[in-house]
Amino acid sequence: MFYTIETLSRYRLTPDSYALAFVLNDCGLALVYFAAAVVILLKSKRDGMALLAAVALVTYGCTFSSLLYLAAEGRPAIASWTEFIAVVGRMALFLFLLLFPNGKLTTPWTMAAYVPFCLVQLLSLTFPGTPLDLKVWPGHLRIMYYGIMIVTALGSQIHSYLKRINREHGQQTKWVVYGAAMSFLGFFVTSGFIVLLPSPNPITYISLIAVLSVAVSIIPLTLAFAVLRHRLWDIDPLVNRTLLYGALSLSILLVYSLSVWYLGNLFQARGNYWVSLIATAIVAVMFGPLKEWLQKLLKRLMKGRHDDPYAILAGLGNQLIKPIDPEEMVKVVAESVRDALRLPYAAISIDVNGVPQLAAASGVTRYDTYHFPILHGGERVGSLTISSRSPDETFSSDDRKLLEVMLRQAGPIVQNVKMHLGMKLLAGDLQESREKLVLAREEERRQIRRNLHDELAPRLLSLGFNVAAAEQYIGKNPDTAKQMLSELRGEIRSTVTDIRTLVHDMRPPALDEFGLLGAIQARIDQMHLPELTVRLHGPEQLPPLPAAVEVAAYRIVVESFVNVVKHARATSCDINIDVHNDKLIMQIEDNGIGLSRLVQPEPGGGIGLNSIQERAAELGGHCTVEPRDTGGTVIKAVIPFGAKGEESA
Q1: Which of 95, 120, 219, 566 is exposed most, by the fewest CB atoms within 10 A?
Q2: Closest CA to 235 of 19, 462, 393
Q3: What is the helix (H) or strand (E) element at residue 640, kind and residue range?
Q4: Dihedral (CA of 584, 561, 606, 633) sign
């Protein structure tokens, strides 16, 4: 901008000092670009992206030096050379932003914007003064043209950040995006002030040009940080402070302008000292609270609500006091963790019977996942799974402190839900057990009915017919009658034997006659095994046992002993029965060939180890089968009785 000598002298400036200010400003700006290019070349001379960055910085930095354009006046060759350097600088910088940091295009569509951009630059350079020359274009078209370039470059870097390979890649992209955004924003804002101010004084104009140079010099500094990759400082605090002070400055400007406008209209005064003083006082009073509010808002938007854990817990408590299902409580906790830390994903798994089960999930997993145990009473009851806000991001100390507070609150809730799920599983198992008992009972009744209806009833009917026939032959043919009665006696004995067998299958009569130990000994004696030495050990007097426990114990011992007789090839067998803490303990040991044959079930669904183990499990006990160190097998079964056993019976 040109000023008269009188205008410059009014601000204590001369034409020489005014020109010197611009020369120093341009040289300083170019020096920043050249210094960044030199540092990059010295540190990364073999890196292709470093070479491209150096070319872009040197050529693009030359476009801000007014000395080149002054030297080109009246010299077409120098003017062409200067314009060529400017074109190369713009194309090189644009290409660098599209390829950084790995030298590859993030998406093919960026080339669709880069090729036309370069074509227009080259046509403008080749045909100066024609409609193809950018200098001839209207201002709004040039703004649109360069705006497309800026948006494409920033979009490419943002896309590169989202698809980055590792944390260093992401930090590099952050620095480039931050530098380019701040530089372009500062350039447009400062240029807007220069254009909109009707007639700025020389001091104001020089200050605006200096601010413009500072804004433009952000690009080489951030590019140097990104390309060199040495000590890539975390840029998030810098972005946070930039947003904070930018929003604060804009808010103060608006408050001051509105205060001056309102007070000026209220008191019908313009440029009044008191109006400015009152507006300044309003800004001073609002500065502290406004800064604190903006800082809290930005921190919550970027990282979550670290500053107010009480409000988070209070909100969580307000949700949990509502009448909701216990399983929904876990979902409320997961959503609270996700909202408090601004996470893309949070899920809670509960350990049920030692197996983790996903109980609730909120959001979608995007990046790395981290797992944190949920403890209650010193015991792990579940785990929290969260996803990072971006790839390779680590959680800060504030994040972990807030997580620790929320995990402590989640412990009792998860424990409550764990107990609820356990009760549901127990209820399901109980229902299944009841159904099995009913089915077994009905199956047993059907078998008894079949035996009575299909076997005993026809036999008894046949016996009745035989008795009637014998009555007819008593008077006519006594010998025939005697023969029929003799046959009838045999049939009656066979029928009685079948009835006893049926009753024996329901409950061995020996149990009622001799007791458990006596019934087992009677069964052993019935088998007549001179080659097998059998020793039965037990207390002198067993406590009263529930009927179900007594039958199960008898079946387990007898079935185990029969297995030994049939398969073990043993010469010795010890049967020990004892009672301890309301538990009946049975142990059958032999010196036979071991488990190789015992594990095989009987053909036709007969006696086997599965049957023995099922009998013990039905009454809440257990049965184990193990080899002996000295050869043979040990079968040990434990069945609880007493109150629990009576309930089972």
Answers
A1: 566
A2: 393
A3: strand 633-640
A4: positive
